[in-house]
Write a structure and sequence with these properties.
By secondary structure, this protein is an all-alpha fold. The chain has helices at residues 9-17, 21-39, 49-66, 75-101, 115-135, 138-148, 153-160, 164-183.
């Protein structure tokens, strides 16, 4: 996949839509940690996180096939939307199935967060991300984001092209800086 390393997501998607399976694989690999991160935020009754990750990857694959660059949107945003919708759909379907089995009308039961709660959650995440960007260097921010997305040290080293010691030091500095930043009352 080294041949696609410098390609934009949009150009890879175009190649993937033309049948280039290597381009499709590259896009799936680029976004797999984002899908994993998104799936970890939810719980599926009777299922596992892996089930939601799989559904998220299906959403990502769907995004590759249906992305239209003439709509004026970036693929990254479109992919995130498709992944999130796929996961929400599965959660809703699971909730309806569970409620139907218990003989309860699904339309009268609140099964999870409302759109407003999801919006507030996203705004809180954006606020935290903004604080991280102010406190951390670019490299520290990238490493911390990958770490919080569930990547191992080895995977972070591969993604950044940096040695293990650099990644470990960046995480250590980041943790100390964040401790100070979030303990501030300002």
């Amino acid at each position: 996949m080294q041949e696609f390393k410098n390609e934009t997501d949009e150009s890879l998607v175009k190649l993937a839509q033309q049948g280039n399976t290597a381009a499709t694989e590259e896009i799936l690999n680029r976004y797999k940690y984002a899908v994993l991160s998104r799936a970890r935020k939810f719980f599926l009754v009777g299922g596992e996180t892996d089930d939601l990750v799989q559904e998220g990857m299906i959403g990502l694959y769907t995004a590759i096939g249906s992305f239209d660059p003439s709509a004026g949107k970036r693929f990254k945003n479109f992919a995130y939307l498709c992944v999130t919708r796929r996961i929400y759909d599965v959660l809703r379907a699971a909730g309806r199935q569970v409620y139907a089995e218990e003989g309860v009308d699904p339309d009268t039961v609140e099964s999870g967060a409302s759109p407003e709660e999801f919006l507030i959650d996203d705004e809180s995440r954006m606020e935290i991300q903004s604080k991280l960007m102010k406190v951390l260097s670019d490299f520290e921010f990238r490493v911390m984001t990958m770490y919080l997305d569930g990547m191992s040290y080895r995977e972070i080293c591969e993604a950044t092209g940096k040695p293990m010691k650099s990644v470990d030091n960046a995480l250590g500095r980041s943790k100390r800086k964040l401790q100070v930043a979030f303990s501030d009352k300002s």
